[in-house]
Amino acid sequence: MLITKAIKLRLYSSQEKQYQINQIREICLWLYNFLGKERIKAWKENKTIITYSQQQNILPQLKETYPDLKLVHSQTLQDVVRRLDYSWKKFYVEVRKEKVGLPRRKWLEKYESFSYTQNPAFQLKRSQLWLSKLGWMNIRKHREPIGEIKTCSLLVKNQKYYAVFSCEIEAQPKIEVSSIPKERQIGIDVGIGKDNFFALSNREKQTNPQFYRTAEKELGELQRKVSNKEKGSQRREKAKLELSKKHEKVSNQRKDFVFKAVKKLRDNYDLLAVEKLRTRKIMERNQEQNPWYSAKSLHDASLSFFLLALSHRVEETGGRLVKVNPAYTSQRCSNCQQLASRKLELSDRVFVCAWCQRQEDRDINAAKNILYQAQITELGTNFVNQGKIW
Ligand SMILES: [Zn+2]
Predict the structure, then answer these.
(1) Which of 3, 18, 29, 339 is 20 to 30 A away from residue 370, measured at CA?
(2) 152/86 Cα distance (integer angstroms)
(3) Measured in angstroms, how far is the CA atom of residue 330 from the centroid of ligand 1?
(4) Does residue 36 contact residue 103 with C-beta atoms inside 8 Å?
(5) How far is the CA of 178 from the centre of ligand 1 (A)?
(6) Contact at 8 Å (CB) between 344 and 189?
(7) Is the pLDDT score of 278 beyond 80?
């Protein structure tokens, strides 16, 4: 099975090239909004649906009317149509079910990248990247792209330039579940409270990194700085850039932290079990109106990123990620499997079993139950009779 992996490398280019890159970006944005307007018009007037191929077919004609488009590679232009089509396809489907707004026009700030979608339009040689319409540029290759490079995108973020390669690699064959030894199986209870990141069935715990606290404070201050400045003023733009840079830094720290945690888990375990529903809840909670710099939202964003990265990594390396039914994972005793008569409150940190008197950290108890569930569904057994008392 093939999987896609993205790798992002810093790009160093002359001022002139930077100018050209941004010019291409602006032309792409113009095309995006131009074709978007056509779709809006067709929809508003008589609910007509315009397709990808219709818009792609008028590109040669548009190039004649708007010669600036010739400064952009044809693959890149087609990719613009594809991006627009992607947001509209969603709209066409959703509008039938509920009232949704028309896809909006985009602004340069949010239109950060453009893409080359087939190999002859880009070439990678040692630490140099060649792009059609732009020529050779230096890149910092701190990592080597692996597998087959399918597409190359240029990304401009916070006044820095990047090349993002999407590579296709062959996934390792799946490990046979029955051959996974007990010590390479683990249950993971992801943290709902904002202090715990996750707890494992082997009693290990991962707390949230310290930088969350600092980030919450600093991002909050920068956010206030932006709101205090007059709209449209230079000072406000400056403050916005500062905030955006800080946010990028925090996001990099978070990625770093998550990748390390994922790597460690995958190195040590082949069967990893998580709860099905809670995963979804976190993703949903992530959409809620938390200020995007609060420790809680940082925590939630990290958790959903963690779960995503974990499933990618496991898939890539042939391991098993089992998602179990979350019913009773926190209410059951992981020692004797009896259910507690009442649900635990979020403030109850310790699970005390009324049947076997076992006391266990609440999250670790849940992690053990999650693993137990996975063993039952995947293997039909939990290996050992975990010290049942009857
Ligand atoms: Zn018990």
Answers:
(1) 3
(2) 19
(3) 12
(4) yes
(5) 28
(6) no
(7) no
Query: For residue 322, how far is its CA from the centre of ligand 1 (angstroms)?
Result: 24
Q: Is the dihedral of CA 118, 120, 121, 124 positive or negative?
A: positive
Burial 24-45 (b: 16+ CB within 10 A, else e): bbebbbbbbbbbbeebbeebee
- Beta bridge partner(s), residue 324: 275
Q: What is the CA(71)–ligand 1 centre distance, in A? A: 71
Measure Cα distances from 33 to 27, 81, 279 in Å: 10, 10, 36
Question: 387 C-alpha to center of ligand 1: Å?
Answer: 10
Residues 127-158 as b/e (b if ≥16 CB within 10 A, e otherwise) read eebebeebeebebebeeebebebebbbbbbee
- Indicate the range of 2-6, 179-183, 341-345 predicted with least confidence: 341-345
Cα 369 to ligand 1 centroid, rounded to whole Å: 12
- Asked whether the beta carbons of 179 and 362 are under 8 A apart, the reply is no
Q: What is the mean pLDDT of the chain?
A: 88
Indicate the residue type of 116. Answer: Y
Terminal-residue alpha carbon distance, the chain: 47
Prediction pTM value: 0.76
**Letter string b/e over residues 47-86, b meaning 16 or more CB atoms within 10 A of that residue's CB:** eeebeeeebbeebeeeeeeeeebeebbbbbbbbbbebbbe
pLDDT, average across residues 327-355: 87
Three-class SS state of 273? strand
3-state secondary structure of 184: helix
Is the pLDDT reported for residue 388 higher than 50? no
Q: What is the pLDDT of residues 87-141, one digit of tens each?
A: 999 999 888 888 888 998 999 888 999 999 987 889 988 889 999 999 999 999 8
Instruction: Report whether 261 contacts 188 (CB < 8 A).
Output: no
In the chain, where does DSSP find H-type helix? 15-46, 52-57, 59-65, 74-97, 211-228, 234-268, 276-287, 295-316, 362-379
**Closest by alpha carbon to 112, among 28, 238, 233?**
28
Range in 112-116, 181-185, 195-199 with the lowest mean pLDDT:
195-199
pLDDT score, position 23: 96
Distance CA 359, CA 335 (A): 9
Q: How confident is the model at residue 283 (pLDDT cuts 50, 70, 90)?
A: low
